[in-house]
Amino acid sequence: MAGYGLVNLIREFCDSFGVIVPFKAQSTATLIALGADEIVMTKMGQLSPIDPSVISPFGPQFQIPEQPGAARPIPVNVEDVVSYLNLARQGLDLKDEDSLVRVFDRLSQVVHPLTLGSVSRIREQTSFLANTLLNYHMKDPNKIRKIVDIITKGRFSHDYLIGRKEAKDVLELNVIEDEDTSNKAFELYTEYDHILQLSTPYNAEVVLGDNRTITADFNRALIESDNLTHVFRTTKKMDRVTLNPPQVPFPTAGVSETVIQEQWLQDNNI
C-alpha cells in the first residue's frame, strides 16, 4: 500500500512520472515502477516479483533459542500457500472433496485460518494494485494482464531478479536504455550509498567506538526536489551496559539504544 500511495501522491504533482532504477528496486519498489510512464534502468538495475508475505500474530511462531517463551512470527508467503494447495490438486492429483478438505485442514493447523484469510485478501489486493497502476499509462488490457500474471505469480520465487532486458523484452514495460542517464544515475546512487550507509552493516559497537555513551544521527531516507533536500533523520542515545540474560552464567556487554528524535529535516548541505 505504501508504494501505491506514493505513486498516487507523486502523480498529483506531475503530468509525466518516470522512475530511475540504478540498482535494486524490488517488491514495493517494483510496484512503484509499474506506475511509471517510463523506467530508466542501468545494466545493474533489478526488479522483482511483488508476491507479498503476511506477518500476523495468528501466524506460525519461531521459538528463539536460549530464550524460553520468546518467539517471533514467521512470515507466510502468499504464493507459498497457493502452491501448497496447487501441489495437492495438480502435483498429487487429489480430486475428491474429502482429500482436499484434509489437505486444507492440515494447512489450517499450522497457519491460523485468519492468517489464511489475510493471504487470500492480500493476493487479490496485490493484483488489483498492479493492475490499477499499469492502467494509468497503458490501454491494452491483455498486455496489462500478462504483466500482472508474471509479476505476481509467474516467476515462482520472490527472490527472482528481473533485469533490464527481461523488463523490456518480456514484461514489455517502457524501459529506456539511455547509457548517459544510467551512468549519472549510478554515480548519484553511489553518493546515496555513502550518505545512507546502504552497504555498511549496522553495528552499534562500531558506532560507539571507544566512547561509553554518545548521541548519534542516522540518515535513513532522502527526498530531493528543485533547490531542496529533505532527510529523514533518527537521533539515538547509545550507552554501553552490562546485561544478565537468563540461563547465561556470566554478565555480558551490550549496548542500550534510545531513540531521541525522528523527523524529516531540510538539509541543503547534503
Quick description:
By secondary structure, the protein is of the alpha/beta class. Helix content is 41%, strand content 24%. It has a domain at 201-266.
Task: Tell me what you see in this structure.
The chain is of the alpha/beta class. It has a domain at 201-266. It has helices spanning 2-11, 28-34, 78-91, 97-110, 113-135, 141-154, 164-169, 179-196, 204-208, and strands at residues 18-21, 38-41, 53-54, 61-63, 71-73, 76-77, 175-176, 213-225, 228-243, 252-266. Strands 1-2-7 form a three-stranded parallel sheet. Helix 1 (2-11) packs parallel to helix 2.
List the helices and strands and how they pair.
Layout: H1 2-11, E1 18-21, H2 28-34, E2 38-41, E3 53-54, E4 61-63, E5 71-73, E6 76-77, H3 78-91, H4 97-110, H5 113-135, H6 141-154, H7 164-169, E7 175-176, H8 179-196, H9 204-208, E8 213-225, E9 228-243, E10 252-266
Parallel strand pairs: 1-2, 2-7
Antiparallel strand pairs: 3-6, 4-5, 8-9, 9-10
Helix pairs in contact: 1-2, 5-6
Question: Top keywords for this entry?
Answer:
alpha/beta, about 270 residues, 10 strands
Mean pLDDT over the full residue set: 84
Which quaternary structure do these chains form? single chain
Give the CA-based shape.
flat
User: Order of strands across the biggest sheet?
Assistant: 1-2-7
- Proportion of helical residues: 40-55%
Order of helices and strands: HEHEEEEEHHHHHEHHEEE
Strand content: 15-25%
What is the number of helices? Answer: 9
Helix and strand content put the structural class at alpha/beta
Overall radius of gyration: 23 Å
The termini sit apart by 29 Å
Topology, number of strands: 10
**Most strands sheet:** 3 strands, parallel
Low-confidence stretches: none
